[in-house]
Amino acid sequence: MSDVPLDDCGCCGETPPAPPVRNRPGLDQLAYRAGTHGSFLRAMTDRLPSWTLPGDELTEAEAANPPRPLAALTTRDGADPAIALLDAWACVADVLTFYQERIANEGFLRPATERRSILELARAIGYELKPGVAASAYLAFTVEDAPGAPREAVIEPRVRVLSVPGQDERPQTFETVERIEARAEWNALKPLTTRKQDLAIDTTTAYFAGIATQLQPADVIVLVGAERQRWPGSEAWDVRIVETVTPVPARDHTVVTWRPGLGERPSHPAAEPRAFVFRVRASLFGHGAAEWDNLPTDIRKLYVANGTGTQWPGFAMNVGSATAPAEIDLDAAYPQILADSWLALVKPNYVELYRAAKVRTLTRTGFGLAAKITRIEPDGKEHLNFFGLRSTTVLAHSVELPLAEEPDTAALGADADPDRDRRFIALDRRVTPPEAGRLLVVSGRRKRGRALRTLELVSEDGYRRATAAAGDSLVIVAAPLSGSFRRWLLEDRHGFQGVIRVPRTGDILEEPALAHDPVQSEVAVLKAVADTETRTTLELESALTGWYDRDTVTVHANVVRGTHGETVADEPLGSGNATLPNQRFRLARPPLTHVAAETPSGAASTLEVWVDGVRWSEAPFLHGLGPADEQYAVRLDDDDTPRLIFGDGASGARLPTGIENVRATYRTGIGHEGEVGAGKLILLQKRPLGVRGVTNPLPATGAADPEAPDQARTNAPVTVLTLDRIVSLRDYEDFARAFAGIGKAQAAALWNGETQVVHVTAGTASGEPVPETSDLMAKLRGAIDLARDPSVPVVVQGYRSVRFAIEAKVLVNERHDRTAVHAAIAVALESAFDFAHRAFGQTVTQAEVVALIQRVDGVDAVDLDALYREGAARSLATILLANAARRVGGAYQAAELLLLMPGGVTLTEMTP
To answer: Do 201 and 64 fall into the same domain?
Structure first.
C-alpha cells in the first residue's frame, strides 16, 4: 500500500473508513454501496464543526491548536449555499455508488437483471440463451375426390397453412416440414363397424341385408346350418316366428327379432347358417275331407265294404318304404314351390324341416276330394308319420334372406380377445396400403358406460371421491386395464374423473357416445398393413390410448408434420469482403425459427446460409475452426435479433469478396402464439394440385418463447453440470429442464418389481403437461435416449395437474380500500401458486396461505375458512398433499403439480 495521500487538501484524511460490505451466499441482490445521498450528506455536515485547514497553511502556533473556521457555520438549511454545495456532492456520490452497485450485481449471474449481462455471463461458460422453439402440429390434408379429379397429390415441404384467429389473436403461419404422397382414399378412413353375426344359443335377433325384405310380424323364417344343408338327419336348424321387423336405412339392413331364443328344441343352427322366409302356408291334401263318423253309412260303404271303421281308408301321409320315396301332397297346386327349396311341417308344439328333392303338379282324388295338387318328395322320411293330414301346416316356398353383418358395438381399442388388440384397426374396405412409418391421426368420441349400480369413483391421487348413481352415464376416459377385474377411468357429468375396479362382466354397461360429446384425437404411427380381398387392417407401432365409439372414428392417413413459421427464401445478407475479418450480418426478419430436435438443447435452427452458391454450415463457436472451414456462428443480440459471425482466416474461413454474394434462407416466427387450437389451421395459402383442404385434428404444442433472464439463471449452470450426457438421476432432471420447450422437470427412481426405472415428469414452457403424442414429447425422449445409459429403463410423462381452492375471512385496515386489498390478495395467491413458482409434488399448507395473505399491505387479520382440492368436499385441510411420481397397479403415474384453480380464491370481510 502507498502512504501517499489520495487528496491534495487533506480533507479526507480524518474520514473514518466505511464499514465493510458483507453479502452471504445465495442472495438475489448484492449490497455494494458505500452509502446513499442521506448518509453522505450527513457525514459531510457532521464534519463541518471539526474541519481544519491543511497543515501547510498553518503557522507554528496555529498548528498546536488548529483553528476551525467552519465551526461558526451552524445552519443546516438546504437553501444555504454551503449546505447546497454539500448536497450536490452527496448527489454525485449517491449516483456513483448506485451504479457501482449495479455494475457489481451485473457481474454475477444470480443478481444480474439486464438481459445483456445474463447473455454475456452465460456465454462465458459456453451457454447461449435459448432462442425459443416453434410450435408443431399434425396437418391432415384432404385430397380431391370429385369425379375426374386426380385423386392423388404430393404434399411437399414448405406448404403454408394459416390459422383462423379467434378474439384478440393474430393469424399464424405453419409450414409442412416433410414430403408425403396423399390419396383421396386415405382422406378419412373408417374402421370396420360390423362383424359376422354370432347366431348362437339364445339368440333372438338377426340382421338381414337391405331394407326391402318384405318381412312382416308373424312371418316364419328358418335358419339352416351347414350340417343340415349336407345331411338330412341333422338338427342344425331352427324355425321361428317373427316378432318385430325394423329397417335401418343408415346401415342398409333390417333388424328382426323372435321368441324364444335359438337353441330351444330343435337345436340351434351350426356353422355358416343361411336364413329363409316361407312365403307359402299350405295344408296337406285331405285336411278338408268330411269327418268319417259324420258320413252316412251308404257313403262310407263306397269306400269300405261294410261301412265300418273310424277313418277314411289310407287317411295318412305317404311315408314311403325302403324302396319307395315318401310323398307330401299339398291341398292345391303351388307353382312357386320349386325343387331344392325348404319346407317345414308344423303341428302344435312340433316342427320338422325337409328339403324338396322333387316337386311336381298332378291331379289327385281321394277322401271324397278331387283337386290339382303339388306333390313333394322330401329329402328325408324321418318323423313324417308324426304329422296328420288335418293337424299339419306346411310352410313352403322358401326365399333366402341374405344375412348382414351385425353392428360391432365393441370400442375401438377393445382388448376383450386377441382379435381386438388395440394395435390393430380393421378398415371397412380395402384401400391401397399406406407405407410403414406413416403418421396417422385417430379421431373419435369416447364411449360411455352406464352404471348398473351405485359406484364410488376415486380420483387417481386417492384423495377425492364421487358417487355415480345407478343409471348414470359416464364417459370412459381411457382404455381400461384388464385382468380378472377391469380398472376404468371414468368421468361424470360434473367433469370429475375417477377410477373404479369392477368385474369384467358387470357393473358397467358400455354404450355409444352422445352426439354432443367432444371429439378426441391421438397420433399413431403405422407399423404394417395386412390386406385381404375385402378389407385392409392397419397395425400400429403402439396401442391406442383412447376407448372410442367406433361408429364415430375417423382415421386420417394424409398426415404430415408442420411447424410454426414462414420461410424467407434467398434473402441477400450483404457482400463478402476477403480483407475484413469476422464479418457480421443481421437477418432482416427476426425472430429466427427454431424447431424441436433430438439434440441436447432441444432445438435446431432453420437457417441456411449460401456464399457464392455454396452452402456454409453453422458452428456453435468459431474457436477451434480451421482457416479453411466454411462455417459461421450465430449469436442472438440483446433484442433477440440473430447476428451471423464469419471467420477471420485463422478461426474459420473469411468470406470471399463479392457483391450480394452472402444469402440466407430461413423461417421466421416462434413462441407461444403459435400454439393454436385444434381445427384452427384450415387456410391454405397456396393449394397444392389435387388438394381440397387441410385441418389440424390436435392443437399445436411444444412452443417456447425466447429464454427469459430468470430461466437462464437456472438453465445456464445446468449445461455445465450435464455436459450433454446423462449419468446420475439429477442429470435426467437437468437435461430435461434445459430442453427447449420444457419449462419444468423432475426425475425420480421407481421400482417396477424387477429393476429400477428412471421416471421423468415434465411440463411445457407454457405451463401445460407435455402431451403424450406431441412432437415435443417424441423429441425429448429421443434426445434423452441418445445421451443416457441404454441399459436403464426410462419413462417420460407429462405432469398431472391438481387444483385447489381457498376461502378466507380478511380484516382490512380502515385506511385502505377493501376492494383493492382483496384484489391484491388474489393476485398474490395466484402468483405464488402458479406453474412458475411451484414444484412437482410440492404441498400447500395452511400456514403458507395465511402468511401470503397477511403479507399483503392493508391486511390486519386473516381467518382461513377452507382449503381443499377441486372436486373434493369443502373442508379446512391442514396440508394439501401432492403425489410424487409413482407406480400404481402396474401403471406409472407422473408427479402432481398442485396449483390454485382459476377463480379459486373466495374472500369475505371479517367483523372486527
So the answer is: no
